[in-house]
Amino acid sequence: MIHNERPASARTRAHHPVDQAQGLRQMFATRVLRFIPVVANPSARCGGMVLARLCAAYASVGLHTLVIDASDQARPPGELVEFDLAEGIEALSPQVSHMAARGLLLRHVDARGSCSHLLDALADASPQSDVVLVHATASELVRLFGERSRGLNLRPLLCTNDLAEGLRDAYAAVKVLSQRGGWMAYDLMVCAHSESEQADEVAQRLARCADDFLGVAQRDSLRLDPFEPASEAPSPRFMEIAAGLLRAALPQTLGDSAFDHLVSPGAALPARVSTALN
Q1: Are 61 and 125 contacting, i.e. CB atoms less than 8 angstroms apart?
Q2: CA-CA to 212 of 20 to 30 Å: which in 78, 102, 147, 202?
Q3: Containing domain of residue 218, as a range?
Q4: What's the pLDDT at 256?
């Protein structure tokens, strides 16, 4: 008589990973990174401060953040990035990594004008990250996030200073985001001295113009003092906005190629952190 049932030893082996990579795939099958679009403002030039404050906020709750700076003021990526995006990622601290990426997004534009497939590659290149901040122009962010953001509550972060030029460029960004990306809400950081008399007016004028002429809502706004020490702990209000950005972020599940980085020599396993920001 023929028995179809496999020996117990075979059944046991079937449930165990055959190699390290397969084991990691099973362990982190549902690992998700969160992408947050941060709009570069060429006149305000305060994106670096906003990014640093966000990194500090997420680090304070144990999250690892990758900053992808694709703004016009950023450095271009190194030559090796053309072959492996991970080669362009630099560890700044145990909780923060950085990638200089000026011009990178446009290199990956397809025939439809989209570079959304780059999100997969970026996620796989930094599997240890929990949050990815993409700092780029409004048009580039639409190219990157546009196709993936349909049906999601994606909310970009804008920044400006308390000057007319910064307000002008912020409004131009809102126009691009709404008309080309269909994003009808945003958050705002106003980088201005605590004694500035124009900062509140700038935020109010942008909110009115965005609503009256574009139908776009300014959900939250906050003033950031550039003269405040970088070591200053994030305020409760800033943490609230940072948490809101994370909840509205674009989720991205790791692909199989991410595990090639995890099992390579010197790679570290991604942290599995459960926090109030999740």
Answers
A1: no
A2: 147
A3: 21-262
A4: 57
Q: Does 74 reside within a domain? A: yes
Cα–Cα distance for residue pair 173/142, rounded to 1 Å: 11
Helix (H, G, I), strand (E, B) or coil at 134: strand
Give the contacts of 3 (CB within 8 A, at least 6 positions apart): none
Tell me, what's the pLDDT at 278? 41
State the pLDDT at residue 18: 53
Residue 49 sits in a domain whose CATH number is 3.40.50.300
Q: What is the pLDDT of residues 128-144, one digit of tens each?
A: 899 999 999 999 999 99
Averaged pLDDT, groups of 10, the chain, 278 residues long: 45 48 52 93 94 95 96 93 94 96 95 94 92 97 92 92 97 97 96 95 98 98 91 91 95 68 43 39
Residues 6+ apart with CB under 8 A from 108: 115, 117, 118
- Which residues partner with 100 through β-bridges? 69
**Reduced to 3 states, what is the DSSP secondary structure of residue 168?**
helix
- Is residue 30 in a domain? yes
* Residue 196 DSSP label: -
Counting the structural domains of the chain, the total is 1
E strand or H helix that includes residue 25: helix 20-27
What is the model's pLDDT at position 7?
47
In a domain, 270, yes or no: no
Residue 220 lies in a domain: yes
- How wide is the angle at C-alpha 169 spanned by C-alphas 168 and 174, nearest 5°? 100
Its sign, for the CA torsion 187, 190, 191, 195, is: negative
How far, in Å, CA of 181 to CA of 228, rounded? 34
